[in-house]
Design brief:
This protein is an alpha+beta fold. About 20% of the residues lie in helices and about 30% in strands. It has helices at about 20-35, 35-45, 80-85, 90-95, 105-110, 160-175; strands at about 1-10, 55-60, 65, 90, 115-120, 135-145, 145-155, 185-190, 190-195, 200-205, 220, 225, 245, 250-260, 265-270, 280-285. The strands form five sheets. Strands 1, 2, 7, 8 and 9 form a five-stranded antiparallel sheet that branches. A five-stranded antiparallel sheet has the order 11-14-10-16-15. The protein is globular.
Length: about 290
């Protein structure tokens, strides 16, 4: 499988955070609309044995997240806990050299993301009124700077040309919630192939994943609870999926000996009334410096 980095440039605000598993779900819809349902079924039919694509979360342009490790393992000054929490970005080179104390803040790298609360009003679409009176609710909205997304692609199953076609459609369709009112639209640059040696003992996860059944020496992670929903054609009849508990991006996995690993995790099924749904429980692995 080949690793690519795609830089996206948001053209509207987003109503959902850019997470790898949700990107995968929407990419599958885009495959269906562009290449047909049979092609999607073919790709998902082999997803438990060999995924055709795995998406990372979105990260600040040219940076990656600091590993989910204690201050001691990161060699940070424990007295500066408050400042250390804000230092969350490292370069690929720094991660591979173990230079964790060089992490930078959003302000230092000019990652100008903003989160705001938007007030809306519930409407009864049968009467086109607000019902008994003023019925407001709040919703998070995100203004994002450019982001990097990593993609692990099995080009024997799904070639780069098809990826570009489908991803362009997704970028115009919009990502996440509220795409029908123009949220989540972006442009993207040509994918850049990343050549790195995946032979290592210690790895960092680039998206939330299922660690169930993973055989490793140690794992360090923050939990992430996923409350998923089906979208598009399936958004109007019981769209809710079963909640999932993942290890979040930034998790560190340590093995007994060096090995070549590009990804870990599993495909997740049987989480919805729609039995054909497949959820990305995989993550791309990035080899990093061994921790002491």
């Amino acid at each position: 499988m080949n690793l690519y980095k795609v830089t996206i440039i948001p053209k509207s605000n987003f109503s959902s955070k850019l997470k790898g598993d949700q990107l995968f779900g929407q990419f599958c819809w885009a495959v269906r609309y562009n290449l047909g349902e049979e092609r999607l079924k073919e790709l998902l039919g082999n997803y438990e044995q060999q995924p055709f694509i795995i998406f990372s979360d979105a990260f600040a342009k040219d940076f990656l997240p600091k590993p989910s490790l204690s201050s001691k393992l990161l060699n940070e000054d424990a007295k500066e806990k408050k400042q250390n929490r804000k230092k969350i970005w490292l370069t690929l080179n720094q991660l591979q050299k173990g230079e964790f104390t060089k992490a930078k803040t959003d302000d230092e790298i000019k990652n100008l993301d903003k989160e705001s609360i938007i007030i809306r009003n519930s409407i009864n679409y049968f009467t086109f009124t607000t019902g008994d009176g003023f019925d407001p609710y709040s919703k998070d909205e995100f203004s994002l700077s450019s982001k990097d997304i990593y993609i692990l692609l099995d080009e024997e199953q799904f070639n780069l040309s098809d990826f570009l076609k489908v991803f362009k459609f997704l970028s115009q369709m919009g990502y996440g919630a509220d795409t029908t009112i123009g949220k989540g639209v972006f442009e993207f640059k040509e994918p850049k192939k990343i050549d790195i040696d995946f032979f290592a003992t210690t790895f960092m996860a680039l998206s939330a994943f299922s660690p169930y059944g993973l055989k490793c020496k140690k794992i360090f992670y923050e939990p992430f609870v996923k409350f998923g929903k089906s979208g598009y054609d399936r958004a109007y009849t019981n769209p809710f999926k079963k909640p999932l508990i993942f290890a979040n991006s930034g998790a560190v996995v340590v093995f007994d000996k060096k090995q070549k690993l590009q990804f870990i995790g599993k495909a997740i099924k049987n989480i919805s009334t729609y039995k054909d749904i497949v959820h990305q429980g995989y993550t791309i692995l990035l080899p990093i410096k061994d921790i002491q």
